[in-house]
């Protein structure tokens, strides 16, 4: 260890001085607080305190300097330490977490942070083994991925690998011995701890110990982490850690745990010998809990676990009763723990936008009145209620002009009128009135069907295929026609009434058209609401916009360099969202070749994307097993929803925008309250990945389609009614999920070896399903 | 905390031998053991990584089967050149080779003559993707049309018959049952209420008018004189998903029919009825357990009855016995459980009868033949324990008939048939069980009169086995360019456990015999289960007829070549 630090000293003398100051300062402060295990001056300290505390002291120094108006020094120090600017503005307790969290975020001056971290990291009292890596940090300095190195360098502190299982076991015993009600909460710490201890062993080249450690304790982990454990298990060498995405996820993001304050208070009472000095440092209970846990670990003379908790875990304390095991299980499972509660605090305007008023329906109705006598009387009140609804502004709705939306064209208005007319003929669905399902089977697709979409009026169906083609079918008697060529178009009398008919080339009429252009399997497909365009996203990294007038490609949107898993048009057209393997969701406008917004935050592939019905928000589901809701206006992530145990493959918003449903490879459908950011239901029944979800036009029924060759219908009215939302649950987000999947299940319809990959409710509430027949 | 331990995940690593083999294939001769170990760990890790990425492509491709293109795409993600030459194959046939203490799995790359490829006519263009709509559900009720799965899946019938008290929810997962839509016309209308009345005890079996019509048509066709119609009817019975409710009627029809026709020695009708049994058993949507009490006695009658035809010296009732014996064996295999114990009960029945004829010289050769056929179809174990010990006695009896004064032609034919039956079944068993050398004298001592003939049969059987083994051997000795990467990746994929085909195509049962034997007549197209979907009933009947005829002809030609020649139309002249 000393050798490493000497190397650093030679390289960066100046910086070393700075850090020395830091350590001196920390020494002073810790002397004041008379903490026995604090660091002393100089880098060669043998104190048992971890780097986490050094971070803390660093912050304390920063505040001290600030108070004394030494802004220059503050700046320098902050730059040296690589702390984010806001870190020192928050109270110490907050910044303890944020400080170390800030480390990975410094991409530019990663080298500095490197040196700093290696400086403050201290060998534990137990003798470092002979196999210690001689030049951990220095060796990785020249890599082209500074991020990784910063992250990895955190592992340079190490203990005796033989003791790791003992540490882990010790903690296990400690947690098993606490009261039942707290055990479930505290045992959340096992999994992240296990992962980091394993990675630490691997990083320090203790391959065999790592293997043993894994074999010994991997069986204890919750079964829904199995996928991650498999990835972990394949990593047995330090070299493997470079470039491994899952590993990076673990390193760069903090694993979030939610633990009730109660749990901590109880464990506090259990430790009466709490040192007074620690109290002085602690301002909130969270800090207290840290110190308590730390104390427990110090008694056992190791701070490995403590370091890990400090650096890689974020513990979110809430007021109230500790959660039960089932409650925890419902929420956990994502790659980085649960969402932080404050991540879901932002207000979401989930209401619908006001429908533009269209006068035309009236004369239209008159027409109908002439045709069918007696009917208009029935219809009138309906129309009125609709009208009044659209006039009243929903208090939860965003401002009409919050994001600029395209203006309605005449054709759009016509379509709206059609829509309203159809809507009046809509069947009211319910448990006693199930929809009919029409199934569109793709024959001879040879396992190549990868995506399907219907237009809103159900007149066209499009399929994306593994052979890079996109095919469009007309499912009405009206055939698909191209617009005539430019030369022919010039001959047309533009004044004639049927000019729209005349521009179409009758010779090209056919039931289906094939669109060529992609160079890889097409994974996402979406019609524009006006049926003039079609979007497709592909393995080749592009999103293409196709015209359904000329059946040619108009634009290829490049930006994702990796496969684009899904794309979706906004319900108002013009905007669209795409997401893929590069973990960034992009918001585009059809007339811009560059994205308008980039939504970054997911820790793994974005697997599905969806616009909120009011077009102000975008939901993305990811392979990191979380769903995020993004604000289109600000680009902020406003919701992080955790609870799925597998990659999410389908999303659906209820028509009123209030609820969301999501389906994943774990075969479960979860229901969410968008406004509160809460899980409000769990629908179990499918046995395989759910690829399709759709609410009926009135939102009473949710249809789900799955790889297990079934379509299931669920009673969502009942599901949302059963949930009692009091203030407490709304505040904490901990809800007792009713176990009523079987009651909510209204029907199961088996297909004949045809996985269901898309569902769509027509405007009259007929359910359309699609999938490829797999003989 | 999950209590149970998951299987060790971190220890799966490629063997170092693979590394050596790969190194050799690219021209690196001596690779040190340590480098091998280091390499294998690295390679294993990379392969796992790629397999995990490939799984993503599989999921997004909405498949549950990992393909080679998924792996190519995963490689592309990592900026690695994809593996060329593995596209568009259902699976890659790896061959195994050993030699010099080393073992290899490799992908054989044949040398291809370009002119051959140029000269062969173009393959037919695959059918284009098309879209077809059908009603999956009408106001919450699933209509029973060929596009939808059968209303009462086989699994459900099974659970109902084995656990009648346990209520079963409709719409459970069933194995990929693929039926031909043909013939599913009138029988479909009833399926509607089926889903809802599942809980009701099925004491009454009321058939709708359509079903009654269908039943009448089918039974008439099955025993009528028109072979084309019969073939179609049997095909319908074997594939139609909606026969569940008519099963009791069919079962009674068959058992009554056998009872009457045995007395009247009407061989043709007995054959038709047995074919019906077979068709019922072949239907992937039916579970016959509840009706075995009627079917088994009928089948057994057709095996061991003294007389099945009017002219025992001319008619080939032996074929019927063989056919029925195989049916018996099949039903034993399918339906024998610990509770009903069919296999042992059947064996006991046969043994009892056989014991009787063993003791009693007067028993008809026909019954004796039936017993032996029935027993020997039950498998080599049965042959070994029950038939082999009696070969000597049986041989003496055959000798008495053939050498002795000509008693009657019937006895002689019977003895001949028993002899060939014994030789056929025992030879293969002996070939497996008995150590070399095959000494004629020794055989004579062990098996009496049949010994020498047995010996020659055994020698023949051994030779055939050796020939097959040699073929296998030959392939293993050719070591061409190995393709180690894919060998590995396959195991990697297996380990990650995502790739499995959704539907398992049912292997045709042993009775169909078609695909298992070489030299099958060319008009035998792949098993009927392969045709699927929306083929309308018109037009397909002729092919089915051919198919069925071919099956039966083939069946008979196996043993009785002269019957194979008698042409299609009338099975009755058997």
TrEMBL record, chain A:
GO CC aspect terms: transcription factor TFIID complex
Keyword Repeat appears in the UniProt entry: yes
InterPro entries associated with the record: LisH, TFIID_NTD2, TFIID_NTD2_sf, WD40/YVTN_repeat-like_dom_sf, WD40_PAC1, WD40_repeat_CS, WD40_repeat_dom_sf, WD40_rpt
Keyword terms, alphabetized: Nucleus, Repeat, Transcription, Transcription regulation, WD repeat
A Gene Ontology biological process term: transcription initiation at RNA polymerase II promoter
Gene Ontology molecular-function annotations: RNA polymerase II general transcription initiation factor activity
The keyword Repeat is assigned to this record: yes
Alphabetical list of SMART domains matching this protein: WD40
WD repeat residue numbers: 442-483, 515-550, 557-598, 599-640, 641-674, 683-715
Protein's cellular compartments: Nucleus
Acidic residues: bias regions: 360-371
Amino acid composition bias (Low complexity), ranges on this chain: 30-52
TFIID subunit TAF5 NTD2 domain mapped to chain residues: 160-265
Domain of life: Eukaryota
UniProt record similarity statement: Belongs to the WD repeat TAF5 family.
Record protein name field: Transcription initiation factor TFIID subunit 5
Organismal lineage: Eukaryota, Metazoa, Chordata, Craniata, Vertebrata
Automatic annotation (TrEMBL), chain B:
GO MF, one annotated term: RNA polymerase II general transcription initiation factor activity
Domain TATA box binding protein associated factor (TAF) histone-like fold positions: 12-78
Main location per the UniProt record: nucleus
Disordered as annotated region, ranges: 142-203
Keyword Magnesium included in the entry's annotation: no
Tree of life domain: Eukaryota
GO BP annotations listed: RNA polymerase II preinitiation complex assembly
Bias type Basic and acidic residues, positions: 189-203
Record keywords, A-Z: Nucleus, Transcription, Transcription regulation
GO terms for cellular component: SAGA complex; SLIK (SAGA-like) complex; transcription factor TFIID complex
Pfam families attached to this UniProt entry: TAF, TAF6_C
Localization annotation: Nucleus
PANTHER family: TRANSCRIPTION INITIATION FACTOR TFIID SUBUNIT 6
Similarity annotation: Belongs to the TAF6 family.
Protein name: Transcription initiation factor TFIID subunit 6
Provenance organism: Oncorhynchus tshawytscha (Chinook salmon)
